[in-house]
């Protein structure tokens, strides 16, 4: 598992705690309503999209990207993740459990029996 700089594991629970603490310390809980968080999340998805806008297709691994562009990408990906984690928390959804359950549902919906087949429904 990835380690955070402080030595602790990066888990959804850790991010949930950190985002809750961040909002509490600033008295921003009042602004973190489900609707506000959803709009903030969508805004950050837009910022993430801007990074790829007009570049055409890019190689996996982003081998020809400048380091500063990769850092920027990490920041926007993080904003999306942090708002998603916070939104889930505020809505009382255990995101880790919900995501694992969804992975299971996806596997049922798209059985791997036809391995090697890349067909999508
Ligand atoms: N009311 C707020 C405002 C910000 N944040 C946190 C969550 C995001 O990780 C980050 C978003 O901050 P900005 O709105 O400043 O967005 P950017 O960091 O993308 O800055 P900019 O839009 O100037 O590029 O801060 C938050 O939790 N609650």
From TrEMBL:
It catalyses: dCTP + H2O = dCMP + diphosphate + H(+). Its main location: cytoplasm. GO terms for molecular function: dCTP diphosphatase activity; magnesium ion binding. Keywords: Cytoplasm, Hydrolase, Magnesium, Metal-binding. It comes from the Eukaryota. Hydrolyzes deoxynucleoside triphosphates (dNTPs) to the corresponding nucleoside monophosphates. Has a strong preference for dCTP and its analogs including 5-iodo-dCTP and 5-methyl-dCTP for which it may even have a higher efficiency. May protect DNA or RNA against the incorporation of these genotoxic nucleotide analogs through their catabolism. This is dCTP pyrophosphatase 1.
């Amino acid at each position: 598992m990835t380690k955070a700089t402080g030595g602790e594991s990066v888990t959804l629970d850790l991010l949930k705690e950190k985002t809750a603490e961040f909002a509490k310390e600033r008295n921003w809980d009042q602004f973190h309503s489900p609707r506000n968080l959803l709009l903030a999340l969508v805004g950050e998805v837009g910022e993430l999209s801007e990074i790829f806008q007009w570049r055409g297709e890019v190689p996996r691994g982003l081998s020809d990207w400048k380091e500063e562009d990769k850092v920027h990408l990490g920041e926007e990906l993080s904003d999306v993740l942090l708002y998603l984690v916070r939104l889930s928390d505020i809505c009382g959804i255990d995101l880790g459990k919900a995501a694992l359950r969804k992975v299971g549902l996806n596997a049922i919906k798209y059985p791997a029996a036809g391995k090697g087949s890349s067909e999508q429904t």
